[in-house]
Amino acid sequence: MKTLHPNDFGYWLFTQGSNLYLLNNELPCGMAKTLGMEGLQAMQIGEWKNHPLWLVAEQESDEREYVSLRGLLSLPEDEFHVLSRGVEINHFLKTHKFCGKCGHKTQQTQEELAVQCTHCGYRTYPVICPSIIVAVRRGHEILLANHKRHYHPNGGMYTTLAGFVEVGETFEQAVRREVFEETGILIKNIRYFGSQPWAFPNSQMVGFLADYERGEITLQESEIHDAQWFSYDQPLPELPPTGTIAHKLIHTTLELCRAEDNQKEI
């Protein structure tokens, strides 16, 4: 980051964890001196509406009112991603002020996004945790789970299965393992669908579609409250919000269910 000059101009991203500051439902825009930001630390992380987007170093004492990044999922994908980038960079800089090798202070490098130890020279880059997320189809049905964190006495949200990739594991192995661990179901025909940065705080969601092979639902009770097969042509439970890769996976799978059911009628 650099010290802001009075005439530095653009949109300004203030973050606190996975929350950010909006002024009249928009990122603040203007010159640093006009917005009273002279002397603060900031770095340009991209563009917003064809102007520079600056990430401002998180302020320890800040009376601004912040909103959750999750509440902005309805934004265009490119805009949501650049905000996620800012949140993740902020998380990285906050959690890597000291060297993980020798414990001395680090400083941000000038030539690339990294921090380097001022004592031993060890360099660290932003940490991204790969996670898989998968929609499983069985004919005209989709497998959806109500995770314990989403449970509500009136039902709560049902979504696809997901989990972190373990050391030495391929994405496909992680997909098979997570589905089996959480539901006891074996799957086949695993294929890549898409990905989504997920800044809560630093995940990369890698999405897959898969087909049911065999097995009966057996819940991993420490993680899952309920899991069921839902037919595409019957009422569905509460689903993840628009803008999430889970939402895209579910609706793509429902279309596949519909297509297979229609094919059987021909």
UniProtKB/TrEMBL annotation:
Residues covered by the Nudix hydrolase domain: 126-253
Enzyme class (EC, first level): hydrolase
CDD domains in UniProt: NUDIX_NADH_pyrophosphatase_Nudt13
UniProtKB keywords: Hydrolase, Magnesium, Manganese, Metal-binding, NAD, Zinc
Annotated binding of Zn(2+), by residue: 99, 102, 117, 120
Record carries keyword 4Fe-4S: no
Amino-acid positions noted as binding a divalent metal cation 2 in the UniProt annotation, renumbered to this chain: 178
Reactions mediated catalytically: a 5'-end NAD(+)-phospho-ribonucleoside in mRNA + H2O = a 5'-end phospho-adenosine-phospho-ribonucleoside in mRNA + beta-nicotinamide D-ribonucleotide + 2 H(+); NAD(+) + H2O = beta-nicotinamide D-ribonucleotide + AMP + 2 H(+); NADH + H2O = reduced beta-nicotinamide D-ribonucleotide + AMP + 2 H(+)
Residues that bind a divalent metal cation 3: 178, 182, 223
Entry keyword Chloroplast: no
Motif (Nudix box): 163-184
Assigned protein family: Belongs to the Nudix hydrolase family. NudC subfamily.
HAMAP family from the UniProt entry: Nudix_NudC
Protein name per its UniProtKB record: NAD-capped RNA hydrolase NudC
Species whose genome carries this gene: Haemophilus seminalis
